[in-house]
Amino acid sequence: MGNKGLQKRFFYVGYIFFIIILICYVSFNHSITVANAEINPKIIEDRDRSNDCNTLVISCVDFRFVSFIRVFLTENLKIKDDYDHIAIPGSVTDIIRPETQKITFDKIDILLNLHHVNHLVLIEHKDCGAYGGSKYFDSDEKETEVLSNGLRRVRDILNEKYPNLKIDLFLASLKNVGNEKFYYMERIYGAAFNHSIIMANTEIGQMVAENCDHSNDCNTLVISCVDFRFVSFIRVFLTENLKIKDDYDHIAIPGSVMDIIKPETQKITFDKIDILLNLHHVNHLVLIGHKDCGAYGGSKYFDSDEKETEVLSNDLWRVRDIFNEKYPNLKIDLFLASLKNVGNEKFYYIDRIK
């Protein structure tokens, strides 16, 4: 066969291959992004031993406290990433408010039943925008009183509904000490003002303060699920791949974007998002779903991996369209996380949904 014949054959093969790739691109328009492979196996060893975790953490989304709360949970409470984490504006206020209490309990019920949680950590913080910030209060003492009493009230509500749960209450703050800034955590006990100061690692605290307290603005809002199996991975992905470090607000709720689709929760969810967009001037939205999500019934609910990918991707596209209509100036990125077997090893993956 002459050179022209070989060239023609290679051309046709290449053309057919291109058409196949194009069809796949149009049908399942996403690309694989894998976070740091050296970090992945370490996360797997810690995280993928079972579907149970001991602890549920509920805190605010404020980006100034994201790193500090993580350091406090790891260094002081020693729970590492073995916890589910619901992060919503105002932290526990949704448990107090009648119009949001049932929705919040529905989410907590999912986690208690799915992951067999027996320990609840509730964290509020001072200068919280959901309360109007520190300027709303007459004094630091009054702010401490109001937030502490709010935590105690929530503990009483939770004790009545979940009598077997161990519940710990904490109040975080960012304070000036001389010319430096440090984070503090107060453990809130039963009686009024009966609390003690706990300070997380001061070296880390100072580093976090330098990184996160430069202003009240952040560029990015992340919305993801609370599933403890994905907590470390999502953080690694945001830091290593998207390079946004801790300069982001992070709403973490069971089912990720489901509350934006469901009519009964859409308005409440948008109210929270409005707070963050107006308070922190967010201009970038990152929406992350994940496979084997309990809010969807897990992977076993779907006939195949392809069907699960299709349903979750379609939900992300649907939510992006809703956001584009309501917030046309927002940059929006969609991702779908999964935990997969590769030979005898397990790795996390992110599909970028375009």
From TrEMBL:
Return the InterPro entries for the record: Carbonic_anhydrase_sf, Pro_CA_2
Which SUPFAM superfamilies would you find in this protein's record? beta-carbonic anhydrase, cab
GO MF annotation terms: carbonate dehydratase activity; zinc ion binding
Q: Which domain of life is it from?
A: Bacteria
Q: Which UniProt keywords apply?
A: Membrane, Transmembrane, Transmembrane helix
Residues annotated as transmembrane: 12-28
Q: Does the keyword Transmembrane apply?
A: yes
Q: Does the keyword Zinc apply?
A: no
Q: What is this protein called?
A: Carbonic anhydrase
